[in-house]
Design brief:
With 338 residues, the protein is mainly α. Helix content is 89%, strand content 0%.
């Protein structure tokens, strides 16, 4: 019985030792497989920094376990890291397919509709690309799905807009074809009505402008009076301020007084049904200005003439008075002689 137990113990020990050797060989093979995976992904254009760091960490832990007794070695974390490498490989290729599909869809939409605005999806695509290059494949996959949905939505909106535009264009075309006679009649009536009320409308507008100018002139006169009262009576204003305001108000008053006669002339033309265009208005302005320049000369001539007339009258009176005085003196002398 004891011999059987010893034999059984030897069998179990040899099996355990053999299994330990198998484990050592298996981890070496797993490390080789992981290194091969990293090489393949690198050749396929993947970033492999994260996977490299994971494999290095697994090898370091394995080497640390080798320094311990076989019975105390724990390879659980190593298995976790190796599984993570395989999982990253699988997720990386899946995410790459989604990312590639999104870029293909983006290019297809842009090619078919050059005028379409895809900027709303650009930010999501940039984030997707960043996450993919950072080896965060889960986030890249989710962002790829989001970008795909956004592109489909934008394309659908553009399609609906184009359809609405085509439908509207077709409807309007059909409307004009079916109702062209009515449209022509309405246009003709509107044109006739416009020519009928054209002068009356112009008359009304000119009259309203004259009223507004008169109101503005009254306001300026009130401001001038107030400025004079503040300066002369109250002394609340500096002389420079007074001169500036009076000058400005006077210029505005002169401009208004220049416009009102021209508008009144235009109003008279409208009342009699005559046309009044901008060129004629300009010519009228020139005539008015010329008359204004000539007016002071005439006034001076009249004033000079009046003064001369007055002086001649005064001289006549003086001469007559002198004659009367001479007659009286001669009469007095005669009386004295008698």
């Amino acid at each position: 019985m004891k011999i059987q137990l010893i034999f059984l113990f030897l069998i179990l020990f040899s099996s355990f030792a053999y299994s330990e050797e198998i484990i050592e060989v298996d981890y070496g093979a797993k490390f080789n497989d992981a290194a091969q995976t990293i090489l393949e992904m690198s050749l396929d254009g993947f970033q492999t920094q994260r996977i490299n760091d994971t494999l290095k960490a697994a090898i370091q832990i394995y080497e640390g376990q080798q320094s311990r007794a076989k019975a105390q070695r724990d390879y659980t974390i190593i298995d976790t890291y190796l599984d993570e490498i395989e999982e990253l490989k699988e997720k990386g290729y899946i995410a790459r397919d989604e990312v590639t599909f999104v870029y293909d869809l983006y290019d297809s939409i842009a090619e078919e509709n050059p005028a379409i605005n895809l900027s709303e999806a650009d930010l999501t695509i940039e984030e997707m690309n960043f996450e993919f290059n950072s080896e965060r494949y889960d986030e890249a996959f989710d962002l790829a799905k989001e970008a795909y949905s956004r592109l489909i939505e934008i394309e659908g909106q553009q399609t609906a807009l184009n359809l609405a535009y085509k439908t509207t264009t077709k409807t309007l075309k059909a409307f004009f074809v079916d109702n062209w006679m009515i449209i022509l009649i309405v246009l003709a009536v509107a044109t006739i009505f416009y020519f009928i009320i054209k002068n009356r409308l112009g008359y009304f507008l000119i009259k309203r402008k004259i009223r507004n100018l008169i109101k503005e002139r009254d306001s300026l006169e009130a401001l001038i009076k107030k400025t004079q009262v503040d300066y002369f009576e109250h002394g609340d204003m500096a002389e420079s301020t007074y001169q500036i305001r009076i000058k400005k108000f006077s210029e505005l008053m002169r401009d208004i007084n220049r416009q009102i006669p021209l508008l009144k002339e235009a109003l008279a033309r409208k009342r009699h049904g005559k046309t009044f265009d901008a060129d004629e208005l300009t010519q009228t302005k020139g005539r008015k200005k010329h008359q204004q320049l000539k007016a002071p000369i005439k006034e001076r001539k009249v004033e000079v003439k009046l003064v001369n007339d007055k002086n001649s009258k005064d001289n006549k009176k003086k001469n007559n008075k002198n004659k009367d005085n001479k007659k009286k003196d001669s009469k007095n002398k005669k009386d004295k002689k008698k």
